[in-house]
Design goal:
By secondary structure, the protein is an alpha/beta fold. The protein folds into two domains: about 5-230, Alpha/Beta hydrolase fold, catalytic domain (Rossmann fold, 3-Layer(aba) Sandwich), CATH 3.40.50; about 250-370, GMP Synthetase, Chain A, domain 3. The protein is built from twelve helices and 15 strands. The protein has helices spanning about 45-55, 80-95, 110-115, 135-140, 145-150, 155-160, 165-170, 190-195, 215-230, 290-310, 350-360, 365-370, and strands at about 5, 10, 15, 20, 30-35, 60-65, 100-105, 125-130, 175-180, 200-205, 250-255, 265, 270-275, 320-325, 335-345. It has an eight-stranded mixed β-sheet, sandwiched between helices. The protein is globular.
Length: about 400
């Protein structure tokens, strides 16, 4: 996944070190991730959530607060109030770079910071918090005393913390609260207070057995997937330069009675078989379901590049796309389609790069990357048109 460094000037003049996770498709929006008080921009939670959002088309800036990580300043030099102001500075820098921030995500103290900074960022459309305290003073008893000076540096920190629930009540923005019931650093009652203060639309997700820092990969992955799915409904789909989606009558797949898996597929006037390999009990009489998905991606990619090349008179002689599917349970998401593109013709390097970017805009690519809704309905056998899908009679 593509990244790029994004440094900007904080509210106190310090240079803050940031990194942007770039979506592989035209962005639907831009987000900022505020890390927890003992973490940094490269924490497991920050990295996982940012990459999950990028996968659904939301670019994410994660940065080190002043005095932490690669950002300028000494630990404890700047206070919590400065962190709140730096979030607004980050959003301003993003907007100046053509990336207006529409989503804020905060972990632990970063969650309190995004709730308190949201009013200062007019472009924000939704907020998600992970293990956020309802007030800053709650966490002072549980953390390293060396960090206390960082939080209390500004004399207004306590006042701001006490006003957090009032701020939440006045946000009038979609809010997702994620918290683990067994969190020993910031208790679950904090999530309850924030949730009760918020106005609808609001959602709460339990992180079950997760610890405060989401140190287990499975917990960070779960939080990332939930936030990415939730945020998608509040951000608009960007209009992209792609082939319009034509109406379809759909396809029918039904068993042929041959072998364990063989099905006959009818798609309009086209008929073919799908099956599984011999190794798992199939007859290998047709492509597997995942090969059919891969074929859809490959075909759509070729068509989209051809449409664009003809439109702008590029000397593209022939496009060839190979797609393979693999799965790794330790990867997020576990399924991956790898696409290999070969372009023939007297194309300049800039034209080849443009065609590769257009490939990422094909409708099937966008559907796979951003996800889609699947609705299942049960029909009586008599509801099917007589003989529809039965025309194939395999030997």
């Amino acid at each position: 996944m593509a990244q790029r460094n994004f440094d900007f000037t904080g509210s106190n003049g310090a240079c803050l070190s940031g990194r942007i996770e770039l979506p592989e498709t035209p962005p639907r929006g831009w987000a900022i991730f505020a890390h927890c008080f003992t973490c940094g921009k490269d924490s497991l939670a920050a990295t996982r959530v940012s990459r999950a959002l990028a996968l659904v088309g939301i670019g994410v800036l994660r940065f080190d607060f002043a005095g932490l990580g690669a950002s300028e300043g000494e630990p404890g030099e700047f206070g919590f109030a400065n962190d709140i102001a730096d979030l607004a500075n980050a959003a301003q820098a993003m907007e100046s770079a053509g990336m207006p921030v529409t989503l804020l995500v905060g972990h632990s103290l970063g969650g309190a910071a995004v709730l308190l900074s949201a009013r200062a960022i007019s472009t924000v459309r939704a907020i998600a918090t992970i293990a956020a305290p309802a007030d800053v003073s709650h966490i002072l008893k549980s953390i390293d005393p060396a960090l206390v000076s960082r939080i209390e540096k500004d004399g207004s920190a306590d006042a701001r913390a006490q006003a957090l629930e009032e701020r939440v009540a006045g946000l009038r923005l979609p809010l997702l609260v994620l918290h683990a019931p067994g969190d020993t650093i910031v208790g679950i009652e904090n999530a309850s207070r924030i949730f009760q203060a918020a106005k609808h639309p609001k959602s709460f997700i339990s992180l079950d057995q997760a610890d405060h820092l989401l140190r287990e990969r499975v917990d960070a992955d779960y939080a990332a997937m939930v936030i990415s799915a939730w945020a998608s409904r509040y951000l608009p789909v960007t209009e992209v330069e792609m082939r319009p989606l034509e109406p379809s009558e759909g396809v029918i797949a039904q068993e042929t009675g041959r072998g364990k898996f063989q099905v006959a597929i009818t798609a309009g006037s086209h008929q073919f078989l799908a099956d599984e390999p011999l190794a798992i009990g199939g007859l290998a009489s047709g492509p597997t379901p995942y090969e059919l998905v891969a074929a859809g991606l490959a075909a759509c990619t070729v068509m989209t590049m051809r449409l664009y090349a003809d439109r702008v008179a590029m000397p593209l002689e022939k496009a060839r796309v190979g797609v393979r599917h693999d799965r790794d349970k330790d990867r997020t998401p576990p399924d991956r389609f790898t696409r290999e593109i070969t372009l023939s013709g007297a194309l300049e390097e800039e034209q080849r790069e443009k065609l590769l970017s257009i490939a990422d805009r094909c409708p099937v690519d966008l559907t796979l990357v951003r996800g889609s809704d699947v609705v299942t309905e049960l029909f009586e056998a008599s509801a099917l048109a007589p003989g529809k899908g039965d025309q194939m009679a395999p030997d």
